[in-house]
Amino acid sequence: MIGRIAGRIDYRAPDHVLIDVRGVGYLVYCSDRTLQALPGTGEHTALYTDLLVREDNLQLFGFTTLLEKEWHRLLMSIQGVGAKASLAILGALGPDGVGRAIALGDWNAVKAARGIGPKTAQRVVNELKDKAPQVMAMGAAPAPVKDSGEDVIEPMTPMPVAPAGSNAQAEALSALTNLGYAPGEAAGAVAQAAGETPDVSTPELIRLSLKLLAPKG
């Protein structure tokens, strides 16, 4: 399994890039959002990858973070969501947006992705809602966009590290579950509070989430 690839971008296409790794070209499919984040042709980059094996075809998909890769794998587990649909969802919402939409049960946000119908969007939300808290708390460090041209790397078991923006959400989620709130309920409140107040501190995010969880009336 090819877990990570690093090399020079030889050319870019609407849905993929060709990355030269010491003379071997790897064609890597990416979401629109990931493609926009990559450097230009001739520059070095690194991507986490997932290899899709079919009887008549091998396709490599690339991601800037382990979080994006994990969502891709989960989305692909849903009936009716293939690689193209998964990349469309990630391209439209980004990994954080996917987690927020699923935690909040917002299937309309998922439906906004190109080629995703309402039934598929609802299936995504319903089947992944229990897995969203764990993935949201996972976070991920971005793959370096500049690289000296090292070989393809296959990490054994990468340990994700949450970026600054994800730390508050992960800590708030942990605090709420420790207080006895159900993981799905806690994740929904944290996602909503973080969406309404970006870059908020952990204590404030916990306070806002608790306010959302408080009984109404």
Please characterize this protein's 3D structure.
It comes from Roseovarius litorisediminis. The chain is α+β, with helices and mostly antiparallel strands and 217 residues long. It folds into three domains: 60 residues, Beta Barrel (OB fold (Dihydrolipoamide Acetyltransferase, E2P)); 73 residues, DNA polymerase, domain 1 (Orthogonal Bundle), CATH 1.10.150; 50 residues, Ubiquitin-associated (UBA) domain (Helicase, Ruva Protein, domain 3, Orthogonal Bundle), CATH 1.10.8. Helix content is 47%, strand content 17%. Strands 1-2-3-5-4 form a five-stranded mixed β-barrel. A hairpin with a 2-residue loop joins β2 and β3. The longest helix has 21 residues.
Bin the helical content.
40-55%
Number of helices: 9
User: Beta fraction of the residues?
Assistant: 15-25%
- CATH class label of the largest domain: Mainly Alpha
Largest sheet: 5 strands, mixed, barrel
First-last Cα distance:
54 Å
The class by helix and strand makeup works out as alpha+beta
In the CATH hierarchy, the third-tier topology of the largest domain is known as DNA polymerase, domain 1
Full CATH superfamily name of the largest domain: 5' to 3' exonuclease, C-terminal subdomain
Overall strand count: 5
Morphology call: elongated
Strand order within the widest beta sheet: 1-2-3-5-4
String of helices and strands: EEEHEEHHHHHHHH
Q: Based on the coordinates given, report the CATH architecture of the largest domain.
A: Orthogonal Bundle
How many structural domains in the coordinates? 3
Mean pLDDT: 83
Rg over alpha carbons: 18 Å
Low-confidence stretches: 140-146, 153-164
Domain Helix-hairpin-helix DNA-binding motif class: 73-92, 108-127
Organism: Roseovarius litorisediminis
Subcellular location: Cytoplasm
InterPro entries: DNA_helicase_Holl-junc_RuvA_I, Hlx-hairpin-Hlx_DNA-bd_motif, NA-bd_OB-fold, RuvA, RuvA_2-like, RuvA_C, RuvA_C_sf
